Amino acid sequence: MSEWIARILEQQFDIEPDQTIQVVHRLGIIASALLFAVVTTLVMSFSVFFVDTSLASLQAGDPAPRDIVAPPSPPSTTYVSEVLTEQGRQAAVTAVEDVYDNPEVGIARQQTQLARQILDYVNNVRRDPYGTQAQKIGDLQQIVALSLTEPIAVGLLEIEDDRWRAADEQIVNLLERVLQQPIRENDLSTTRTRLPNRVSVDFEPEEREIIATVVSDLVRPNTFANPEDTEMAREEASANFQPVERTFVAGQIVVVEGSIIQPADLEALRELGLLQATPQQRRQALLRTVIQSFMVSLTVLVTIGLFLSRFSSELFEQPRFLVLAAVLYILFLIGARIIGISQGEIYLYPTAAMALLFVAILGPEMAIVSSLGLALMVGFMIGQQLELTVLIALGGLIGTLTLRRAERLNSYFFAGSMVALINIATIVIFNLGDGQARLAEEVPLFPNLVGYGFINGLLSAAGAMVLMYLVTIMFNLPTGLRLVELNQANQPLQQRLLRDAPGTYQHSLQVANLAEQATSAIGGNAELVRVAALYHDVGKTLNAPFFVENQADGVNPHDEMGDPYRSADIIIGHVTEGDKLARQNRLPMRLRDFIREHHGTTRVEYFYQQARTNAEDPDSVDPMDFTYPGPAPQSRETAIMMLADGCESAVRARRPSSKQEIQEIVQGIINARNSSGQLDDSGLTSSDIKTIRSVFVEMLQAVFHPRINYPSPASGKKPVEMTIEPTTTETSASRVTKPKKTSNTNGAGTATGVKPVIETGEVMAAPSAEEETDVSPLPDVPPLPRRSDETQEADDNDDV
After folding, report:
1. What ranges in 432-556 are assigned the alpha helix state H?
2. Which of 415, 380, 374, 416 has the alpha carbon at shortest distance from 392?
């Protein structure tokens, strides 16, 4: 597709090929950005497109989907609420008590006569001269109208005659007084309870109990409800109840979001015309929501774009990562949309997981700005909640700032714990903002929100690790965990390199150390560079003996072959073959960039000059046959590895005897690469190059330093300090002269018996066997420069 667009631009507008590529790239970015804005707008406007916004489907008992307000026209609406009027009438009718008739006199007379008969019977039992105590108690308990217990019956028998006569009179008088008052059925229990207090104080407590017990059994209800009068009273109350009117002004909240719809609410919505929206109202609601959502998406998109162009412009050259970031962003937004439909559960949604994932994949800068954008979108989408916006924004920021080592699992749990704490703090701040009254109203909700905030942090850590694993597997990205895995010596390619090309393996380790330290010093991705350096020469395993570091005993296949074209093809082939091996073993694309770019577009100078010498017409030799396919380094990290590869090979070949010589060699390599345009697209600054040169010199001095040759113990001679002088065929070999525009500096194109080519084609002999076996102790090495003391201290703390 992009090639087709490029051809159209070239044909129709006569644009240069390089400019065409840039135009197509920019058009792709703009198209992707617009697609991102459209998709996020659709997600945020989901309810308008796919949910019935007329509220016609609402029923009593449903929760209100949002705050429903009175329409702007008319200014006010007044109506008679039949629902509230009926509810008021029912309440008025219920409030009317039963209407009772006057106390019936006949009941009092009847019960008084019954009492007189019972008391006469008790007198007869008391006077019975032949009955025993037990027989008398049994006779008293035979009285049907009374429920006498044995203690009360004994009391009736043992009370003295004069006291009994007084009690007899008190019983009749008390019963008459009580029955003169209206006694309803539901008041009977209360009347009986109060009887002991109405007995004359002249009686002893035992006597009062006997009197109250007898009267209690004789008390009966003497007034009863009149159904006809009661019904008339209730009908009158219903008729006198005035209808209830309700008034709503424009913009007044009719139903609060989340509250249960009551019949009166449903009636109000119907009277206000909110249950049946007109087509024009639907179009207006649709247009308003879409415009708002699009403006939010556009604001977030422009902010992210400006931020990237200012601080991480290199991401614009990596469309795969931008597409991946956009897809993850949209997936998190869709998840928030789905979770937000279930009320309250949005606090559990681990949006901070996206920030942690972006730190591992794209860096902290992208994680911060993306978290802020997601917070704005989700806050707008879920009811325009400021609390939710702040919660998501702070969670993402804290997660980004606390995840220092993305390749370590415990770093994620620490970051998740910090996210949980900031979530709890945010919830407490917003829920205490209106004072203790609000807290008292939401006592059941407040602890739940705090728990949600804590669980959210843990889910963010776990979700980030799971997603990073899935993304690493699906997209084969060089995440921290993947780099840790590839850094292991038991990886198949590492084992193959160690077995088939041990010299190259040792060279790769030295290059990894150099590149890692230099990258760390300028603030680059040191972990990525180190792992890439371990694999940058894997292509040499296919033809290991053709490379000088793997040759032994003076055997040089290039001498036997005698074909500079074939030799150059083998030397150059280790880049293309290495890329094939990396692809077959599923190395991340970012690591394959190092394999393709670590020689850039330099030339295998030795075999090129040899071909010119052998040719009848030197100008007939095509330099492209001896040039690496490239491209030149496209990032700081790949450029650093190119320089580390060349410097390590050159210093190893020359065996310098002083720091000054090392400095000259390193400076020569850097100048050669810079002058040939290999560093033009890398993004390295002059300050970066200066720092890299300093790191290389210090580290190479530690490895290739002057040694002390000790005589054998049998000689008995004193040790003599000796320095290694490089042997060359030219007097100028001890210095690095101005390089040609293209050259080979890493020794890849040299062979045993052929003196290594250094920048200008100068050659020098390999170190002698006696020098190779020198094992004198290393001198003190000055400390290497770091990014900053504070940054290094923080990294050291993370290591602990």
Report:
1. 436-441, 445-475, 480-486, 492-500, 502-521, 526-535
2. 374
The string of pLDDT tens digits covering residues 381-394 is 886 678 889 999 99
Q: At what angle do helices 150-158 and 205-218 cross, to 10 degrees?
A: 120
Residues 6+ apart with CB under 8 A from 770: none
Query: What whole-number percentage of the chain has pLDDT above 70?
Result: 80
- Model pTM? 0.56
> What is the residue-averaged pLDDT of the chain?
79
- Give the closest residue to 348 by CA, choosing from 233, 452, 446: 452
* CB contact burial 702-717 (16+ within 10 A = b; e otherwise): eebbbbeebeeeeeee
Average pLDDT over residues 331-337: 90
Q: Please report which confidence band the pLDDT of residue 21 belongs to, taking 50, 70 and 90 as the band edges.
A: low
| DSSP 8-state secondary structure symbol assigned to residue 711 | P
Section 330-335 average pLDDT? 92
Angle at 562 between CA 557 and CA 565, to 5 degrees: 100
Q: Is the distance from CB of 336 to CB of 346 less than 8 angstroms?
A: yes
Quote the CA–CA distance of 186 and 63 in Å, as a whole number: 43
| Contact criterion met (CB below 8 Å) for 705 and 770 | no
| DSSP code per residue over 96-159 | SPPPBPPPPHHHHHHHHHHHHHHHHHHHHHHH-SS--HHHHHHHHHT-TT----HHHHHHHHHS
Tell whether the model's pLDDT for residue 642 goes beyond 90: yes
Alpha carbon separation from 123 to 127, 159, 643 (Å, rounded): 6, 11, 132
How far apart, in Å, do the first and last CA atoms of the chain sit? 51
| Strand, coil or helix: 247 | strand
Contacts for 536 with CB less than 8 Å, ≥ 6 apart:
508, 511, 578, 594, 595, 598, 641, 645
Q: What does each C-alpha distance from 419 to 374, 394, 798 come to in angstroms? A: 16, 8, 18
- Give yes or no for a contact between 248 and 272, defined as CB atoms under 8 angstroms apart: yes
Query: Do the beta carbons of residue 551 and residue 506 sit within 8 Å?
Result: no
Give the pair of three-digit tokens for residue 724: 């290694």
Kindly report, residue by residue over 542-558, the tens digit of the pLDDT: 998 898 888 877 788 88
Q: Would you state the pLDDT for residue 73? A: 60
pLDDT above 60: residue 375: yes
Query: How is 454-470 classified by DSSP, letter by letter?
Result: HHHHHHHHHHHHHHHHH
pLDDT interval class at 23 (50, 70, 90): low
Q: Which long-range contacts (CB under 8 A, 24 or more apart) does 556-565 make?
A: 556/751, 556/752, 556/753, 556/754, 557/751, 558/751, 558/754, 559/751, 559/753, 559/754, 564/607, 564/608, 564/610, 564/611, 564/614, 564/626, 565/607, 565/611, 565/625
d(CA 533, CA 512): 5
Q: How many CB atoms lie within 10 A of CB 612?
A: 16
pLDDT in tens, 76-117: 788 899 999 999 899 988 888 888 888 888 888 898 899 899
Residue appearing with tokens 């350096």? 533
- State the burial class of residue 477 (Cβ atoms within 10 Å of its Cβ: 0-12, 13-18, 19+): buried
Question: Is the alpha carbon torsion for 764, 768, 773, 776 positive or negative?
Answer: negative
Structural contact between residues 546 and 558, judged by C-beta atoms closer than 8 angstroms: yes
**Between 436 and 516, whose confidence is greater?**
516
Query: In one letter, which amino acid is 16?
Result: E
d(CA 386, CA 378): 10
Task: Answer yes or no: is pLDDT of 593 > 50.
Answer: yes
Strand (E) or helix (H) holding 80:
strand 76-80
What's the chain's Rg over C-alpha atoms? 49
**Band of pLDDT at residue 437, cut at 50, 70 and 90:** very low
Which residues, listed in sequence order, are joined to residue 68 by a DSSP beta bridge? 255
